[in-house]
Amino acid sequence: MLTREGRILGPLHVFHHDNTRSNFLVLTEPERENRDIYWLRRAAAEKKLDVQVNCVSEYLASIALVGPNSRQILSELTKSDVSEEGFPQHSVGHIRIGTISIVCVRSSTSTGQLSYELFHDRADSAKLYQEILDVGAPHGIVNFGQATWNIMRLEHGYKVWGRELTLDTNPYECGLEALVDLSKDDFIGKEAALEQSKMKFDRRLALLTFDPADNPDIQLEWDHIPRGHEVIRRQGHEERIGQITSASYSVRLRKPIAFAWIDSNVQPDEKVGCIHQPFLAIKSFFYPFFIS
């Protein structure tokens, strides 16, 4: 969603889950729920649309099943066809796990992993969770939390609200221009977005990898991994050229990675430094970066 000034109001995921496409499930983040509901209701009223916007968080819960074995586990839990052919990426469908009715969404948007979101009645959460653990045990299923999710989304190049995306950013400076369809007749923020599409910006959002700058024998320690908000400077200079928004250790690359706002005149592969990690250098990528 965009503001009238073309700034990012926040990402939303919209799914229809009935045959008539008259009901849609709109997913936002918990901290933005009330604000987004208000914004949708106000927009509907201003445009005099015959729609209802209802909050279902009080009775609808979600459990995410993520990872390379998630399809196999889900296929053992339900009689529904969840194969690649029967339930491809971005599919939404009603399935049953035992006696539990579920709206199942297949999406790897944030993690880059094969994953399923299982939306269900909150009263069934404990039962559903236990059934998933029981069936998934032979496949090595484990719980994962926010830190693990943060690693996966950084490796996948996924930007989140409050870190990379704020009311001070627009889609064209943070690599989300593909999500803006200027061919549509009208939408909130279109006029501003059209102007932005013709502009050059003095900063870009980059995904960075960290390597030992001078001594490859240095052992990387947890305290050396940025946490966010660290200032970035050109190697050997005091000039400030950017700031980290979020970072973590990449298990796949075996090195720290981070999102950062970087001056547009910084070139890909140019090495720069982080003030609190003087022995680290950063290799910057200005284009969509996905780790296979």
What does this structure look like?
The chain is an alpha+beta fold and 292 residues long. The protein folds into 2 domains: 13-156, Gyrase A, domain 2 (2-Layer Sandwich), CATH 3.30.1360.120; 202-285, Aminomethyltransferase beta-barrel domains (Elongation Factor Tu (Ef-tu), domain 3), CATH 2.40.30.110. 18% of the residues lie in helices and 28% in strands. The protein has helices at 33-46, 70-77, 125-136, 146-156, 190-196, and strands at residues 13-16, 24-27, 60-66, 92-97, 100-106, 115-121, 203-212, 231-234, 240-250, 255-263, 271-274, 277-285. The strands form 3 sheets. Strands 7-10-9-8-11-12 form a 6-stranded antiparallel beta barrel. A hairpin with an 8-residue loop joins strand 5 and strand 6. Helix 2 (70-77) packs across helix 3 (125-136). The longest helix is centred in the first third of the chain and has 14 residues, at 33-46. The two termini are 29 Å apart. Mean pLDDT is 87; it is low at 284-292.
| N-to-C series of helices and strands | EEHEHEEEHHHEEEEEE
Domain count:
2
- Output the strand order for the largest sheet: 7-10-9-8-11-12
How would a crystallographer describe the biggest sheet? 6 strands, antiparallel, barrel
In DSSP terms (H or I, runs of 4 or more residues), the helix count works out at 5
Give the termini separation.
Answer: 29 Å
Strand content: 25-35%
The shape, in one word, is: globular
Using the coordinates shown, work out and report the CATH topology of the largest domain. Gyrase A, domain 2
CATH H-tier superfamily of the largest domain: Probable tRNA modification gtpase trme, domain 1
Please give the number of β-strands: 12
